[in-house]
Write a structure and sequence with these properties.
This protein is mostly beta strands. It folds into seven domains: 153 residues, Tumour Suppressor Smad4, CATH 2.60.200.20; 66 residues, Immunoglobulin-like (Sandwich), CATH 2.60.40; 67 residues, Immunoglobulin-like, CATH 2.60.40; 66 residues, Sandwich (Immunoglobulin-like), CATH 2.60.40.1120; 65 residues, Immunoglobulin-like; 78 residues, Immunoglobulin-like (Sandwich), CATH 2.60.40; 259 residues, paralog of FGE (formylglycine-generating enzyme) (Alpha-Beta Complex). The protein contains seven helices and 64 strands. The strands form 18 sheets. Strands 2-1-11-10-9-6-7 form a seven-stranded mixed sheet, with no helix packed on it. Strands 8-5-4-3-12 form a five-stranded antiparallel sheet, covered by helices on one side. Strand 31 and strand 32 form a beta hairpin.
Length: 786
């Protein structure tokens, strides 16, 4: 866009060198009478023109634009009216041009002169002539330079540039006037690049954008040149190095560039503890060194044994032979040391990384030998040096180098005693034929045509004389149409015995059973009739020894039932499951035939009841469900376990009046009251009843001690008993014919055992529960009346 001036000389194009313009002075390219200009000795205002825009800035006189005073640089537009003292200028626009029109005042005087100048230009002295005082070329060049400088000043904005730290050299690229005044640069609108340099720092090259803001500050920070870091590690295992989370290689490393400042350094190597630290890099090319001493995560462990040559196993790894040194990771380890014909040694060690460890096993003792004992008949008791070890067939480890006393015994047979000695690590077999102790038994049935069975084995016609070992035998006489006759007898060598068997027809037995208060199974298991009644279960809160699960509740039994007079014996249970073993407790055998069966689960007892029902042609009382059993619905008359309510009614209300203990209402326990934890069981149980001796350290025969008023044996004492109910902590406050909850993990156990001796356990209201077999828990049978 061009610039023109319209005055008394007409419309003229103004060369760019004439701008910026200064109003003042004696000479002017604009026709202004001399008499008006000759008194002007100082500038009144500055005008500027650049990139198609015109500006005005007050200098010494009042300046108005469109009647409003301006105090700083002001951008002009076509149509603006500029007042500078007595001068009036109109900004006009024509196609492709922008200009100033000079107007005269009312008195006919022209406006003051407009003279080209640059900021800081010294005033020219006033002259009377119009011709140039210097050569024309020099004068034109000067006017051009001054015009360019003035245009820059009038259109520029002050910009502050702050750089930390202070650079050694700095310039602003993109302007030909690169100078500052008191930290400020005068820059026109546009984009520039700041370039700064300082020793030890990276060269700064940043772009800035200058807008129309009155003043703006740009701040920059010089980046220090990086330093160099060298990393080494001992031992030289090629450890990986990570700086600020970035992997940089493996040791040894030299000349790694790192920015000035603090850095996180991590050194890692397999089987060594991770090393972490912070290093400070000074920068500016300075070299820093980091020497790392790696700590191992393992240690050398040396195993020594006497004699040497043993195999060492650590965890699942096998090493050997001793003496042996292995590298093991730090932490807890188990080890085993094996040597043929020697006992293995086991132990635990704690390995600390970098700390060698010596494990001195010492002398490996000779290994035990193994003695395998078998007998005929089997299931004979074996004692080793007076200590019970189990039943034949049996393997017993023996210490080598000494003689041991072995005794093999079985009820009804002579004891076989012998001394044995075995070599270290050896294996020997001992087979013993036990000699029976025979007694004479005469069988006399009351009818002909009957068949005799001894322990389930047919012996032919029932009428005969037997010579049997002096152990308990089950004698059974069977005949069609008659109830089987069963009994047990233990022959006595030198004392003949006689059995007179009375066979009862099936029809007459049913009639008798309905009328009698007692019934018996075909195998002689006796059951006692208990009539229905209403009674109270549980114990009062203030009763000594009472537990929280013994809540008082009102219960009514509406159906008569039979309950076994005795607990089920080992012999009776082996009819159902011949391989069952009650085992032993301490050195006391629990296997005697007429002692109660133990180590049976609740499911075992329920299965036995169903088997017994099937044997006697009765519907089973239990149905299989979910791996266990539940009472059949509707109930049957098959054999089952007594319910908890039936058990407590039979135990506590035998006389009709509730009893506290099996023997009565008070302590101490009287002699002959039952089989409890007495002085004969000292050393086998934690506590015993003071001054009480029932002569049975473990179980006793099922008909030991006096029965209660109903004729029931050992409802308190001998063994605790499974009942039919599943366990619940607090049953309902009242119930009729309760059978317990439908589901639950545990079943109720009632009554004290030979392991019990506290006030809590001896009471008839004591409630226990469980799910696993125990050496002091058995059961008795029951059934509802037809």
């Amino acid at each position: 866009m061009e610039l023109f001036v319209e005055d008394g000389k007409g419309l003229r194009r103004v060369e760019p060198g004439h701008f910026p313009l200064k109003i003042g002075g004696r000479e002017s390219d604009i026709d202004i009478p001399f008499e008006l200009a000759k008194n002007w000795s100082r500038p009144l205002a500055r005008l500027g023109f650049s990139s198609g825009e015109m500006f005005v800035e007050p200098q010494g006189a009042k300046v108005t634009v469109n009647g409003a005073a301006v105090s700083g640089s002001y951008s002009l537009s076509p149509g603006d009216v500029i007042g500078i003292g007595p001068i009036t200028l109109d900004v006009v626009e024509k196609p492709g041009a922008l200009g100033l029109r000079v107007r005269t005042n009312g008195d006919g005087r022209a406006n003051r002169a407009i003279e080209a100048a640059t900021p800081g230009t010294i005033e020219k002295p006033a002259t009377l002539g119009r011709g140039p005082r210097v050569p024309a070329l020099w004068f034109a060049l000067t006017l051009a330079l001054l015009g360019i400088a003035a245009a820059h000043v009038f259109t520029a904005r002050p910009v502050r540039i702050e750089i930390e730290p202070t650079p050694d050299r700095m310039n602003v690229e993109g302007t030909f006037l690169d100078f500052s005044l008191r930290g400020r640069y005068l820059l026109r609108q546009g984009t520039y690049r700041v370039v700064a340099e300082k020793e030890g720092y990276r060269k700064l090259e940043e772009g800035i954008e200058v807008g129309k803001e009155t003043e703006r500050t740009f701040r920059f920070a010089l980046e220090r040149l990086p330093g160099l870091l060298s990393v080494s590690a001992k031992p030289e295992v090629g450890a990986s190095v990570v700086i600020d989370g970035r992997s940089v290689g493996r040791t040894p490393l030299a000349g790694i560039e790192a920015a000035a400042g603090e850095h996180d350094v991590v050194v890692r190597a397999e089987r060594y503890r991770e090393f972490q630290t912070r290093v400070t890099i000074e920068g500016e090319g300075a070299i820093a060194s980091l020497d790392v001493e790696l700590v191992p995560l393992w240690a050398t462990v040396t195993f020594l044994s006497e004699p040497p040559g043993a195999t060492v196993r650590v965890g699942r790894e096998s090493y050997g032979p001793t003496p042996l040194s292995v590298e093991l990771p730090e932490g807890e380890h188990t080890y085993e040391v094996h040597l043929p014909a020697r006992k293995p040694q086991r132990g635990r060690i704690r390995v600390v990384g970098g700390e060698p460890l010596t494990v001195a096993i010492g002398t490996l003792t000779p290994a035990d030998g193994l003695l395998s004992i078998a007998s005929r008949p089997g299931d004979a008791s074996v004692t080793l040096d007076g200590v019970y070890r189990g039943l034949t067939p049996l393997d017993i480890p023996l210490a080598p180098g000494s003689r041991h006393r072995i005794e093999i015994s079985r009820e009804g047979y002579e004891v076989d005693s012998r001394d044995v000695e075995i070599r270290a690590g050896g294996r020997e077999a001992l087979n013993v034929e036990l000699r029976p102790r025979l007694g004479e038994v005469e069988i006399v049935p009351d009818t002909v045509g009957a068949t005799l069975f001894v322990n389930g084995e047919s012996r032919g016609d029932a009428r005969q004389v037997l010579r049997l070992p002096a152990v308990s035998h089950r004698i059974e006489i069977r005949k069609d149409g008659y109830e089987p006759f069963q009994t047990e007898i233990t022959p006595r060598p030198g004392f003949p015995q006689r059995i007179e068997a009375v066979l009862v027809s099936v029809a007459s037995k049913k009639e008798a059973e309905a009328a009698k208060p007692r019934i018996a199974t075909s195998s002689g298991r006796e059951l006692v009739l208990v009539k229905p009644r209403r009674f109270q279960m549980g114990a009062a809160r203030r009763e000594p020894g009472r537990r929280a699960n013994e809540v008082i509740r009102e219960v009514e039994i509406t159906r008569a039932f039979y309950i076994g007079a005795r607990e089920v014996t080992n012999r009776e249970f082996r009819e159902f499951r011949s391989g069952h073993r009650s085992g032993a407790v301490a050195s006391q055998s629990l296997e005697t035939d007429h002692h109660p069966v133990v180590r049976v689960s609740w499911e075992d007892a329920a299965a036995y009841c169903n088997w017994l029902s099937e044997k006697h042609s009765l519907p089973p009382a239990y149905v299989a469900t979910g791996g266990s059993y539940a009472l059949a619905s509707p109930p049957t008359t098959g054999y089952r376990l007594p319910t908890e309510a039936e058990w407590e009614l039979s135990a506590r209300y035998a006389t009709g009046v509730p009893a506290k203990y099996p023997w009565g209402e008070s302590l101490p326990v009287p002699a002959g009251a039952g089989n409890f934890a007495d002085k004969s069981a000292e050393g086998m149980v934690a506590s015993t009843i003071p001054s009480f001796d029932d002569s049975f350290p473990a179980t006793a025969p099922v008909d030991s001690f006096a029965p209660n008023a109903l004729g029931l044996y050992n409802l308190g004492g001998n063994v605790a008993e499974w009942v039919s109910d599943r366990y619940e902590m607090a049953p309902a406050a009242s119930a009729t014919d309760p059978v317990g909850p439908a589901a639950g993990e545990f079943h109720v156990i009632r009554g004290a055992s030979y392991l019990h001796g506290s006030v809590t356990q001896l009471r008839l209201t004591y409630r226990d529960y469980g799910k696993d077999p125990r050496p002091d828990v058995g059961f008795r049978i029951a059934r509802w009346v037809e």
